[in-house]
Design a protein that fits this description.
single chain, about 210 residues, 3-stranded antiparallel sheet, two-stranded antiparallel sheet
């Protein structure tokens, strides 16, 4: 009885060590599962992987910022498009709807698209590469660096074509979502111009409707 308990205890200890080693190495393993749809790489929530383990979609750790700013855009856009613009002209309603939609699409695309995550290499490939090119391995995430990549300590991954980390998009802006970020900036400028023009035209309309004093 004592032998069986000790044997079971030893088996449990060995299994626990194997599981711990496996969990530790998973963080630095390239995802090669077919039809994989979700995995967390560093601080990024990644979805829909291709055959090379590269995610199509990635949501960063600062996703609450996206929810907050998106809510502000939708509320402000709805007020100006459906409440203030009808008093000016039907065309202002159409313009407001198009500008707000373009801004939301650009912002959401920046939020969802993979910015260029460099997938960590398996341990066996990592050892081989480290012997030949020590300076090409990121010491933080164990990914193979590129000339334009940079490790982001907020996202906890290396980003190819790294430009900057933007908490309002929840993550970094890089090679994969740069076009979407430009679309977001263009839409934001157009949205600010639309809001300003709507306020100006509405003020002029109210002044014209005000009865003239004799």
């Amino acid at each position: 009885m004592i032998f069986s308990n000790r044997f079971a205890s030893n088996i449990y200890t060995v299994c626990k060590e194997i599981i711990n080693m496996k969990l530790k190495s998973i963080k630095y393993f390239r995802i090669k599962l077919n039809n994989a749809w979700y995995a967390k790489i560093g601080g990024m929530h990644c979805f829909i992987f291709d055959k090379n383990g590269v995610p199509a979609l990635a949501i960063g750790p600062h996703w609450p910022f996206y929810i907050g700013l998106l809510s502000v855009i939708l509320v402000v856009g709805s007020i100006f498009t459906f409440y203030l613009a009808p008093d000016i002209s039907p065309y202002m309603v159409y313009i407001g709807f198009c500008v707000t939609s373009f801004l939301v699409i650009g912002y959401t695309g920046t939020f969802l698209r993979n910015p260029g995550i460099l997938i960590p290499e398996p341990d066996d490939e990592l050892e081989l590469e480290s012997q030949t090119s020590q300076n090409k391995i990121c010491l933080e995430c164990k990914a193979t660096k590129t000339p334009t990549s940079e490790h982001c300590y907020s996202c906890e991954v290396c980003i190819d074509g790294h430009d900057h980390h933007c908490p309002w998009t929840s993550k970094c802006v890089g090679k994969g979502n740069m076009i979407w970020f430009y679309a977001f900036l263009f839409g934001l400028v157009a949205f600010i111009v639309y809001v300003s023009l709507t306020l100006a035209f509405r003020q002029r309309t109210l002044l014209r409707r005000r009865p003239k004093k004799d």
